[in-house]
Predict the structure.
Amino acid sequence: MTRLDRQSFLGADSVAILDAATIGIVGLGGGGSHVVQQAAHMGIGGYVNADPDVIEETNTNRLIGGTLADVAVSMPKVSIGERLIRGLQPKARIISVQADWRDAADDLKRCDVIIGAVDGFKEREQLERFARRHLIPYIDIGMDVHDLGKKGFLVSGQVILSMPGAPCMRCCGFITDERLEQEAKRYGAAGSRPQVVWSNGVLASTAVGLLTQVLTPWYQTPPKFVFLDYDGNKGTMTRNARMELMRDHVCPHHPPDETGDPMFDIRKQAFRPRPAAAPKPAPRWWQRIWSRVSGRGGAAM
C-alpha cells in the first residue's frame, strides 16, 4: 500500500489530481494551520501560503505545528506551515510569502482554489473579489465568540464556498455595509481575536472537505454555493437557510465584465514567433523505387 491508498475512493486519478493542484492559503494562524496540515496529509502538491506574522506565545493554544521553540526564535507562521508540509510532502511546490496576501497576488491568481482564514470582513470581501476576478473558487472560514451575559459565551463560525457566477458573501448577507462599518467591534466583550483549537479544527476540516469535492472526481455534482453555520456550544454544523433560497441565484456583485487581470497589457507581452514547420523527410529507398515504377515522377509518398 502507498501512503494515499486509503483515500482511493476519491477517484482513480485523484492522487495525480491532488498532486497537480495548487491551493492558496491566506492566514496561517488558528484556522489556516489546520488547513495546511490536512492538505499535506491528503497529498496536495502546490501551495501559496501568505501571512505576515510570526508565532507568539499566545498563538500556541491553536497554531498547529507551532512549538515553544518556535516562539523563542520568532518563527514566521509561513515557515511553520512549510515545515508541516515538507514532513509529509518533501517535494511539494511551496511559495511562502511572509507579507500581506496582496504581495502574493501574482502567485495566488494561478491557484486552483483559495482558502481564506482571515479576521475581518473587509479582508474577506477583498479576497473574494480577487478570487472572482480570476475565476478561482474561494472558501472562507472564520469563528467568533459572543458574550451572552448570564448565559455565558457562544462560540460560532461559518464556512462559505464562493464559486464564480454563484452567490457571493454579499448575496447571502454575510458581508454587509453595516458589518464593514462596525469592523472594530466584531469581537465584542470576549477580547481581541478569541480563538480555540477545536472550533478552528471543525471549520478547517469542513473547508478541506469542500476543497476535495471541488478538485476530485469522487463528488459527481460539486456544489456551486455553500453556506454552513457552526454552533460550537451545540457542536453542530448546519446548512444556512439561504443555501436553499439562493439555489438559482445569479450574483450581481461580481459581473462577468470584471473578470481578468486589470494590470494585463498585451503590448508588454513577450511573444515568441511560431516555430517554422519541419521539412519533409527525404523519401526512403522503397518509396523512390515505387514512385519510379508507378510513374509518379519520384514524388515522396
Q: What stands out?
A: DSSP finds ten helices and eight strands in the chain. The two ends are 52 Å apart (CA to CA). The longest helix spans residues 197-215. Residues 166 and 251 are 6 Å apart (CA to CA).
